[in-house]
Amino acid sequence: MRCIIFLAILLSVPRIAYASDTAEAAYESARRAYRALRDDPARMKFRHHWLKVGRMLEAVAQKHPASPRAVDALFSAGRLYHDLYRFSGNKEDLERACELLRRVVREHPEDRLADDAQWLLVLRHVEFERDPVSAREELVFLLKQFPRGDMAGKARRLLEDLGGTEEEAPASPAQGGKPGVEKPAEAPPLAEESPEPAPEPAAAPAPPVLEEIRHWSDAGYTRVVLYVRDRRVFRSGTLPADAKARLPARVYVDLPETVLAPDVPLSIPIRDGVVRRIRVAVREGPVVRVVIDLDRAREHRVFPMDDPSRVVLDVGDSSAAAGVPGLDGGDGGTMVAGAAAADGGSPDGGTPEDGSAGPGPGDGGRDGAASKIALDAGPGEGDGDRAADAGAGGGGDRFRVPAKVPGSGVSLSVLAGLKVKKVVLDPGHGGSDPGAVGVGGILEKDLTLDLARRLSKKLAKLGLEVKLTRDRDRFVALEERTAIANTARADLFISLHFNAHKSKKLSGIETFYLDLTDDRYSLKLAARENATSEKSISDLQFILADLALKSHVEDSAVLARQVQSSLVGSLRKRYKKVRDLGVKYALFYVLLGARMPAILVEASFISHPDEGARCADKSYRQRLADAIAKGVEQFMNAREIEDDPGVPDEPDEPEASGASPPAAPAPKAPEKAPAAASPNPAGGKDADGKQPAAKKTGAGTL
């Protein structure tokens, strides 16, 4: 009898494995079809293409209900019909989306996608039906049901903007038909009280998971992003080329105590002239190691972003700042999330410093970009002068950095011979991220896209090539927006936004550029735009101090001043009470790593009754576009004068005699000191198979 039972168990194992493999294969096939559809605007115009992919996703959940992929498929199908409604306007598509999303919330409340599903249910009332009462009810339910979810921050900001509070009682399914998790009926009291059960031990927190790797590249630049759910710490460093082992120069990132998701490929070929390939393996610890094989040793930067938590690697040719004394960032070293960069350190040994543990899975359902709704400590009524006085100062001097060649008075981009030929415009927010909600229910994402299209036409008339980070209502991650500008080799990057505040009295225009700040208002606005906390921004500044040095600070400041001046001056000719909130700087994710002058424009406050009404008027948005284009043109004209070899540089100090000083010679870029070869901290054993490692099937060791 025992033999029969044992034989039955052995026979059942392959069936279970086969069912799991079948579910995984079916889901991956449906997900690939979904991605292919979203990348093909021509096919997106026809409803039957959407329905075909929707049926594929629903079939996964129906045929494999016990598989972990069933929830993923349900959510993806709900999101697909939600996106389809934007194109079709067919009420059946919206109802189908809500039905599937409610199933995720109701049947799988503990799943990490449940709060994402609830967020999409919120967007139904915000974006499609413009029903603030129902939106508040859905938001309150989200915050009560998922207070620690990665949608909670966005939900609180949107709830505040809609005039609600978390204390409001959400409508029950019986009252308003709202989705959610129905509470079970209370059992009748027992005649005799049972003894209280012993408290269960607290469950160990789930380990971080490397869920996805994405990359963007061109011939001189590559950005690699590691999406790590619940990232805690990471280590990074470089390894020199090893001719004997036939190994190229490498950059690596170690993710301690991290699990590798099963669908992450172990080898990703790139061969773009910068990166050969990306390799992934699981080592002892456990440690997930990601190695970037380079065609040769190159400058690189590694830095974290939160909400969702990810690690960004920028690799490429030296920017204009490279080779300038005091501005060279070196060849990397070890960086720990939430802590300052440190030199050296073993990639396999040593204890990493504790870093910030930012929440936020890297699943496609977690967009990671939140709307900025209200600034808790921003300039309110009566604080306009203080906000405007901040101007270009924006923050404390302790963070200021040089952006000119010492002793030359010449900005770095002029030294590099920068000519403005191509501009990338970035319409803020989009897709499942509506941005701020203004008077009358106007959405920031719609206004920014319209403004970008208008501005694109104006810039084209100036003879500029223009590219948009999004040309329709779709979500684009913050790190992807910068990568689009870099891979396009843009000369200018302009991110377009509209502001909002809990005080409906605040109005005005302000323009930002990337730099480090300790100004509370700028920190809060950056935190809102980055969908993260003010503390995370403050901590991150110390990690990214060297990156700010390479961000064309001076040219970005000049561009910001030109655009801000043009906006305020142009609008004041037409409208009354146009407030100039000045030029400021802060650490905006969307500007981080930009290899050209880059600014972020907050064009107006859509929460202000008058400015919000203006923003809803297309003629006002056209005037905004005209003014920004004029500012860009003034920046270009000033650059041509500054870069004209026939115009001598002003002397740093006039001679005492009053005689005209001789023209200053053209500045010569100093030679870059050769980078020292990175010492191998592992005692002569590098990251490529010399140390024992826990093997993952097919992975080998790195």
Anisotropy-based shape = globular
The level of helicity is 25-40%
Report the structural category.
alpha/beta
What is the CATH homology-level superfamily of the domain at 418-642? Zn-dependent exopeptidases
The number of distinct β-strands equals 16
Q: Which fold name is given in CATH as the topology of the domain at 418-642?
A: Aminopeptidase
Low-confidence regions: 9-18, 172-193, 319-410, 647-702
What percentage of the residues does DSSP assign to strands (E)?
A: 15-25%
Strand order of the largest sheet: 12-11-13-16-14-15
- Main β-sheet description: 6 strands, mixed
Counting DSSP H or I runs of 4 or more residues, the number of helices is 19
Oligomer: single chain
CATH architecture annotation name of the domain at 418-642: 3-Layer(aba) Sandwich
Rounded mean pLDDT score: 74
- What's the alpha carbon Rg, rounded to whole Å? 27 Å
- Name of the CATH class of the domain at 418-642: Alpha Beta
Distance between the termini: 48 Å
What does this structure look like?
This protein has 702 residues and is α/β, with parallel strands linked by helices. Among the domains are: 19-169, Tetratricopeptide repeat domain (Serine Threonine Protein Phosphatase 5, Tetratricopeptide repeat, Alpha Horseshoe), CATH 1.25.40.10; 418-642, Aminopeptidase (3-Layer(aba) Sandwich), CATH 3.40.630. The chain has helices spanning 2-38, 41-44, 47-63, 69-88, 91-107, 114-128, 132-145, 152-161, 173-176, 384-390, 412-415, 444-461, 478-487, 520-530, 534-543, 545-548, 553-572, 609-615, 618-642; strands spanning 209-218, 221-229, 235-239, 250-256, 259-260, 267-269, 275-283, 287-294, 299-305, 310-316, 422-427, 465-468, 492-499, 509-514, 580-586, 598-605. It has a six-stranded mixed β-sheet with strand order 12-11-13-16-14-15, with helices on both faces. Strands 5-1-2-10-9 form a five-stranded mixed β-sheet. Strands 3-4-8-7-6 form a five-stranded antiparallel β-sheet, with no helix packed on it. Helix 5 packs antiparallel against helix 6 (114-128) and helix 12 crosses helix 19 (618-642). Mean pLDDT is 74; it is low at 9-18, 172-193, 319-410 and 647-702.
